[in-house]
Amino acid sequence: MSTANAAPRNRAIDGGAASIARKAWARFLFIGLICAALAVAAERLSLQEARFNARTAVETAASRAAVEMERIINADIQRVHGLVAYVRANPNLTQDRFAELAPYLLADATGVFRNVALARDLVITHIYPLAPNRAALGLDYRDNERQWAKVREAIELNQVTLDGPLELVQGGRALIARFPIYLPDGGEGPGDLWGVASMVLDFSAFADASGLDALGDDYALALYAAEDDLARGGQAVYRTAATPPDDAVTRRIELPSGAWILAVGPADGWPTRSDSLLLIIAGAALLLVVGGGLVLISLRFEHALLRQTKDLERLRREAVEARLQAEEANRAKTLFLANMSHELRTPLNAIIGFAEVMNEGLFGPIENPKYRAYLADILSSSHHLLAVLGDILDIARIESGGAELDEQSLELRELTASTLRILRARLREKRQSLSIDIDPAAPTVYGDPRLLRQVLINILGNAIRYTPVDGAIRIDAERRADGALALTVADNGPGIPEDKAAEALEPFVQIGETGAQARAGEASREGAGLGLPIAKRLVEAHDGAIEIGRAPEGGAAITIVLPAERVRAAA
């Protein structure tokens, strides 16, 4: 950054710091005035406010609990109407069929459901779930004095009644909703009594799910039946150890039949005095100190954040510009290589053609043996250069996104066989042995045969080049645990050092020739350093990867890994 640009920026920062200080003092003064006003008014208003807040909190909590209790009871009870209708249509319902229907009926219950039962002729004959409630089977409501009153009321009124909480025969406390079931007789009357359906709600779960237990932790409360409410001193359905005050907040909870009254108030009664003036002043002073400090910290933080945001935006722009420049340079390089390779291929093909004509002696023999040797060198070098130009065109086309896949299923053994037909002469020339360990039942792969063949040609060609005369090369395939297919070409040549593996996959990079490579019979300079990079990009176009390791024989092990999505079971 130049001095001319830095000076205005420094002045802006200094001006911003002064502005922060002014804002901090102004806001601190404002907070001081607010705190003073609150301290003056607090002594007169604190008692009124405390009582108002306490009552509002109790009303809110009581309303929430009342609404939740009413929702849970009515939601769960309504589910049994479908069961009642089914029994009316199928009065000979068996326990097994009942056990099949009940889970669907209660699949989305609120979580407080304990069991549902049917009492044909007022004797419990069906129950779900059966195992924990088996003790209730055979219970005759007429013999149970505690439950019979509500059962009889439901039958006489032909409506749902809610009873409890009461102790169950099978153990536990619960609320029980009962539904009389009358069989249709075709007339206007209710018909003959089939029995009673019961929905049992676990009271402990109900108190927890509705928030009644949580409400009792914070307040004194009592729950009464509407006919035995607080004013009449009736028996509470549920209550805490502390008794609600006389002017407790009350809420009415509507039930399928009747209602409950919920009375809630502070356990210690409503506030009777305000805080002392000294505590109010101390609180106001503390609020002034804390509030002023927070204001100052927040302003400084905001200013630092603004500067950081500006710096990050500047770095982002610089990074974007650098990326665009790099992409443009890469495109220019690719275009240059493609154009250069194309321009060189035309005269090179002419050279090869004329050299072949002269070598064949189509217009007369060349008697001088040195000339014939020179022609052989010209042809060999020209073909090598043409292959290098072909590699350059391939890498340029791949990097420019021109590698389009013509995908189909192909067998690994056919892929390796077609590759060997191309490279067999080079293997014979160096008297190298090649072993192939691919199961005839190996799975097929889905990809572009031409491009995958090019990958294998490049990798196997590298193995031939760097493996010494009379050396050994091996090709094998295996299915990995994740379903991917690994095709490995291993040799007993000099190998690739581990720290050079990533470098070997970069275009135009050749790992330096060692004495072992020289003994292999071919210098590394015979290539352009494009074989493995082209193979890598073609495999990546198939969503795969190239792995470089060391073979057990001591040489290089190059593995083509194709993902499970491209592997098909053998036909």
Summary keywords:
52% helix; five-stranded mixed beta sheet; 571 residues; elongated; disordered N terminus; alpha+beta; 17 strands; Heat Shock Protein 90; five-stranded antiparallel beta sheet; Beta-Lactamase
CATH fold name of the domain at 404-568? Heat Shock Protein 90
Order of helices and strands: HHHEEHEEEHHEEEEHHEHEEHEEHHHEEE
Shape: elongated
Give the CATH superfamily of the domain at 404-568: Histidine kinase-like ATPase, C-terminal domain
User: What's the main sheet like?
Assistant: 5 strands, antiparallel
Distance between the termini: 68 Å
* Beta-strand percentage range: 15-25%
Reported CATH architecture of the domain at 404-568: 2-Layer Sandwich
CATH secondary-structure class of the domain at 404-568: Alpha Beta
Provide an overview of this structure.
By secondary structure, the chain is of the alpha+beta class. Among the domains are: 79-218, CHASE domain (Beta-Lactamase, 2-Layer Sandwich); 326-398; 404-568, 2-Layer Sandwich (Heat Shock Protein 90). Helices cover 52% and strands 19% of the residues. It has 13 helices and 17 strands. The protein has helices spanning 3-78, 80-89, 95-105, 145-157, 203-209, 212-218, 277-360, 369-399, 412-429, 449-466, 501-504, 515-519, 531-541, and strands at 113-120, 123-128, 161-167, 173-182, 193-202, 220-225, 236-239, 249-254, 259-265, 408-410, 433-437, 444-447, 472-479, 485-491, 545-550, 556-562, 567-568. It has a five-stranded antiparallel sheet, with helices on both faces. The chain has a five-stranded mixed sheet with strand order 11-13-14-16-15, with helices on one face. α1 crosses α7, α8 runs parallel beside α13 (531-541) and α9 packs parallel to α10. 27% of the residues are buried. The model is unreliable at 1-7 and 512-525 (pLDDT under 50).
